Amino acid sequence: MVVFESAPRVANPEVARMVCAILAEQLVGNAPKLSLPYNHNRNPLADLQHNLRPLLNGLKEITARALKLRKETGLDVEPGPALIDFVVEQQAVRSLLQELVLDDELSGLSQLARNLSAVVQLPRAILDSDELPLGGVSDLTNRGTLDRMLLSELAHDDLMLATRVALNEALYLRREVQPGHPSERCHVLIDSGLRMWGVPRVFATAVALSLASTRDPQSSLSAYRASEASIIPVDLSTREGLIAHLGALEPDVQPGRALPEFFARISQSKFTGDAVLVTTEMVLNDPEFQRALAGETCPRFYLATVNREGEFQLCSHGPRGRKCHTSLKLDLNQILNAPAMSDRNLIDSTVDPNLPALFRVHPFPFRLPGINKQSLVKDNLWSFPIPAAYDAQEQGSETSQPTYVLSVHSSDVMRCEYGIVALSRDQRLVLIDDPARGARQIHESIPFGKLLTSWSSVHGRVTSALLFRESQRKLYIVSIDRLEGTATHHALPSAALPLLHDLREARGATYHQGVLFLVFRELIEAFDPTTRQLLATKRISPSLQWRRGRYFWDAAAGKSDACIAIAFDGTSIITEPVPLGQFATVPLLTLFDRQGYDGAFGIDREGHLLDVTEQTKAKLWKSSPVQLTVMEISEDGRRMLVSMTQTHSSKSELALVDVASLSLSMVARGATLAEVDAYRVSEPPHIMRRFTSIAIQGDKIVLVSKRGNFWSFKVYGDRLSLQEVDGSLATRLSRNFELMNRSPNHRLQGEAKWDDGSRAWLDARGILHLQSSDRSIPEVSLVLSPPHVAVWTSDRRANGTRYFLDAENSITAEEIVTNIFEPFVAQLT
Description:
The protein is an alpha+beta fold. Helix 4 (about 90-100) packs across helix 5.
C-alpha cells in the first residue's frame, strides 16, 4: 500500500479481488486465471512500461527509515522541533546572576550584567493615569484623605466631626480602580556575527541580562540571536542557555538579513513592547546594515552598541533619526578577569603551613555531626527546599528519584525535600542535605547573628539568609552554593538601622521576587541581595502592623481595607491593598505567598486555607481546634508549622501542614520548621574527643583516654577500625596533648610533639591529625568514631563510610597502615 498509494489509477473491485486471490494461493497453477481486456492495437512493451510506472515511482520514495517511521508514527517525514521563545522573567534572571557570582566560568559575566543593570533602562513614557487620579466613584469607605470626604460630613459641628473622624465613622469617596496596563514584552535581538566574536559577544549578552533583570515584574523579555536570515531564541534564565548562546558563532559580518524576521515576529506577537538590537558600533556604521535598517518599517526601536574598550551606548532609532539616551564606559579587563568567589578543591595558602593539611583544603572533606539537638536554641537554623530533579541533572544522574529526602513519614509534606543550615556561636556554618549522613562544613568564620529571613534561588542551588548582629547593629547576607560547598558573607549597608534609638523599631525582613525588604516602624528599605545596593526607600504609616512576609494590617482601617502588600516595581516600593472579597470579615491569622501561584493565600482561625485570588477555601483538617497559631511558613509556601489546642484538651500540639495536599502530620517538638527537620535527622555516631596522650605500643599508635583506656587502629575488612586494646603492655615515646590557644578558625585543643619534629593534634571535632617530620610521608586526619573511622590523607585519598565522606574510597586500610602509620612510627625511633 505504501508503494502504490500515490498511483494515479485505481483498479475496479472485481480486478482487485482477483489479484488478492492469486496472491493468497501462492501457487500459480491453483490460482484463478486473471482475464483482462487486451487491446491488439497497442504495443505490449509500451503497455507494460505504462502499467509498471506507478510501481517505479512508488519505489523511489521507499527507504528502510521511511518504512520504519511510517510503521511507528504513520508519518512520512519526521516532524522538527517547534520554534519556542524562551520568555525570561525578572526574578529568574536575578536569581541566576546571584548563582553565577560563585561560578568559576561565568562570574565575570554576572558582575558585568549587575553593573549594567544600574544604568541600562529603556525610557518609559509617562501615562496620564500615573499622574492624575482619573476615574469615577465606585463606593463609600470610612478611610481616605480630607479632599474625598463627603460634603454632608461638614454639616456636623466641629466636635461631632472630629469624633466621627477619630472613630473611623466619617464617610469618604472611594475612587474607581483603574484597569491595569496590558502585559508588555521586550524583544531583544543579539548580534552573534563575526564582528562580535570575543569580548563584544560577552558584553552584548550582559546587556541582554541587565535588560531582563531591570524589567517591570509584570513584563517579560524574549531574546534572539541572528543566524543568517533567521532568528534563534536564546534562553537567558539558565546557565545552560547562556553557555549555548556564548558558544554559538555566526559568520555574518552584520545581522541585516535577520531584521525582517525579527520585526515580523514582533508584529505577530500578542504582547506589545519594545524592540532592542544589541550589536557593535562597527556594524552600526556598515553601509549594508544601514540600508537594511532603512528598509524596515518599524516606527521606533532601540539600538544598544558595545565595543572591546568597554563603551556602551543606548539610542532610540526612528523616522526622525537617532537619539542617545545612555552612554558609559566600563573597565572590562577588571570585571571579566575578576576571579570567582569560590575556590573549589584548592589549597588555602593563607593558613599556617605548620598546621594540619586538612585546614588548608576547601571544601572540607569530612562530613561531621553538625547539630547538637540538646542545644538547638543556641544555634541559628534555617531550612531550604532542595529540587531533586535539579540535583540529579547537576550530578549527571539519569534517575528521577529524589536525591535528598529529609522526612520519611507517609504524608506528602514528609516527602518534601528540605535541607538544613546551622550557624553555631563559634561561627561554624554547616549544611545537612541528607538525614542519614553527616553535616557538610561550609565555612569556619561566619559572623553569628539572629536569623531574620532566608530565601533560595530559582533553581535551588544557592540558599541565602539575612543575619542581624544586635551588639554591632550590623546586617550580613550569607549565601551558600550547595553544589560547590562554598559560602560568602557580606555586610548589608542599611542607612536606617544605625540611626534607630530603639531596636524594637526594626521589625524584620522579607524577600520577594528578587528584592530584600527591611521593615522598620515607619520605613521600608529595598535592597538587591546580589549587589547589596539600596534600590528604594518608602515611608509608611505607624498604624501599619507587619505580620508576616510582605503583608501588613492597617490598624486604623476597616476590615475590608485592612490588608496591605508591598512590592518593588523596578524603580520604587509600592503598597497595594489586597482585595479580600468575601474573606474581608473572616478573622485571618496570616497571609502568605505560594511559589508558582499568583495572589495571596490565608489561614483563618477555623483552620481553612483561603485562596484570596480565586475566592475559594478548603478545610485543613476535620476537627476544629479552639486556638490555632501559625508558627512558621516555608519560603516556598509549601508547608507550615502550626500549634493547635483541641477542644477536649488544653495541651497544645504541633502539626506540620502540607499546603498542596491539605494533609496534616503531628510532630513531637520544634519551634521552627528547621528545628522540626533537625529533630528528624538520624542520631549521629559516637565520636571520641577526650584523649590525654598518644604513644607507641609495639609498632602501633595508641591513644590514652582520660579514664586510662588504650585505643588503637586495626584493619577490619576494607575499613580502619578504632578498638580498645590491652593497656598493660609497655608503651614508649608517650607524649601528652598540651593545651593550645583555641581560635574560631583552628579548633585544635591539644598538640603532641616528638624530638624529631613529628607532631600530632587532637581536634575539638573529634579528629586526630598526624604530621611526620619526613614530609614524604603523607599527613593523615582520622575521625575518631569507633568502630570504623574515616580517613583523609594529604595526597587527597580517603577511606570511610558514606556518613563521613562524599568521595569514593581511594585508599585501602592496609595501605594506610603500611604506607603511613608504619613509616610514621619508624621515623619517631
